[in-house]
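Justification of resources, computational component.

The compute hours requested in this renewal are based largely on the per-chain cost of generating structure records like the one below. Each record pairs the submitted sequence with a full structure-token output. That output is archived, and it is also reused by downstream analysis tasks.
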Amino acid sequence: MPRIMVVDDEKNLLEFMEIMLEQEGFNVTTCQNGEKALKILKEELFDIVITDIKMPRISGIDILKYIKNTSPDTDVIMITAYASHETAVEAMKAGAYDYISKPFNNEQIKLVIRKALEKHTLKKENVRLRRRFEREESSRNKIIGNSKEIKNVLELIKKVSKTNSTVLIYGESGTGKELVARAIHENSQRANQPFESINCGALTETLLESELFGHEKGAFTDAIRTQQGLFEIADGGTLFLDEIGETSQSTQVKLLRVLQEMEIKRVGGNKRIKVDVRIVSATNKDLKKLVQEGKFREDLFYRVNVFPITVPPLRKRLDDIPDLVEYFIKKCSKENGRKAPNLHPDTLSLMKQYSWPGNIRELENVIERLLILCPDNEITPNYLPEEIKNPNLSKNIYEVSELQLPEINPQGINLEEIMMNIEKRYLLKALENTGGKKTKAAELLNLSFRSFRYLLNKYNIN
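The structure output for this chain reads:
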């Protein structure tokens, strides 16, 4: 139901407008002065605001300017008994949708409101079509594979999609946890509603809470306008919280309240706003261990862990590599406007022997690199990165017992210094492999962005 606010210092006009608009099926709020209007506008959002221009203390122009600064999508219709060319021009310059002079008839105001709402409907339809396009685009990045491990994941997705239960997706970085979350959404009854996602480990606590819950104008230094958070934007749909294990205790308390009450408060606001959002979370950490260490709230853990799904690392589903390689070759070739080359059998064989610590994300990056380097119609092994070409260099880093360790001399060794050197070399190698892109480098190392940034500072890596 469209929400309309009417602001006028004439009580009789307010009562008339309220009755007329409610009969038309609108949700109407009336205010007899600008002060009351601004107080409500700080807490609530409206589709249309109809305001008189001439009012004591706070004028309609003041209200119009406030709305355009805090809620640009709200349309403002100006009404006044003091019609003049100057006031009309001032109102339209300030962003008014339309301008009506008193006295006006019922049909006149209804027509202007209908036109404003038609504009709103077109905007929403454009958003809906864009989201549909995004879903179709994301569905192209579907979950690929026929291994037993991935079939188990698909079966779990199929079962949980029919419910509204919260889901917690476990898996290393690059395994495709967001694809699983999208698949759950797209196969649910919420498929035509928004799917929003956020990486909880990539933002500071203040920015994360502002992104999740929204904020009121003036809530902090850069809050120049009221902004909806992802919980409001995703209303009716699904919100994907990646790296939920990276959230602070303060944010965890607020997330728990949302899951319990299905309502939020914007940063700097007092009004409780009801939301209807399905929460799908993901982590590359052992949340049970974090609970035991006091770093993750036990009550929140049980709320988000209703239906756990574990996405296997690529080294545990090597049988899927041929299908994944074929998919990424076609995808990357199309994006770069070239014919998809063939893959030499020896190239595929070497790829199946590699441990893929960066998982599917690393595989896609390797394919993209091969298509750049290889001008031929066949990708031969010599184009592969050295660590894939030489199996001895790419021993599974998870099989520590098989690594060749240096001898311990009688004088002993400085283990801490050796480990720091190894850590620093991996940081530099990850940055080199990703062309200096820190977010991707963190993902290759299975680190949160916050932890990665801390290590960069620790080793003074710029």
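The first strand starts at residue 3 and ends at 7. Residues 106-140 form the longest helix (35 residues).
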